[in-house]
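Researcher: Here's the sequence for the chain we discussed earlier.
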Amino acid sequence: MQRKSVEPVSNRIAVPRRMVVRLSYPVLGALVFLAVSAIHGAAISDYDSWHQSVSALALAPHGWIQMANFFMLGASVLSTVPTWRRVLADGKGATWYPALTFALGLSFLLAGCIPQDPAPGYDPARLALDQPSVTGLLHLAVAGIAATASVVLMLIVAARLSGDTHWSGWATCTRVIALLTVVCVAIYGTWSVEPNGLAGTFERLAILLPVLWGGTFLHRLWVGRPFMHHPAAE
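Model: Thanks. This is the structure I predict for it:
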């Protein structure tokens, strides 16, 4: 029986702080994204933030705010792709992590360009669609890519940290957060077809959980936990 290969950790070094700063842009961008969405939603009398998705804000008055919000988030994620390539060079995730980060950032940009269909309980333009539109289906596909990429990115980090004594317990914790994110997305999807409920709450949790995990992960990098290989620092 062939033994499963384990990535050596003895040659890992701390990520330079200038790189950690660059990698923090999406976490800060996501917090701004959620804050802007909360303020925008609170300013609209017939919009229910507990149930409606953040994407539905693009259908509301001043919908350009939410579109710009998506663009900001997407740009912050895309800006980290070159840094992740350097940080992960010659180790697990060196190819897929930057690629999926690019897909995640691009999906946010597209979500800002492609509006969702009116949702049950929120149809400000009174379109009363009988069937999903092409743009609505595209928006759902883009959202699915974003959710999938977010979860797989955490699982890649979990695989890289597995067995690393400098990151004891982090692989398991990361997998738990990834699973909880999937659960939140599933609950959102189930509840989003209803005219009321807590679909929006679980969607926001699906965004917030990876953000909180990412912030804690970056803090560990900031204090010097070994993560990258020597060649990547050259």
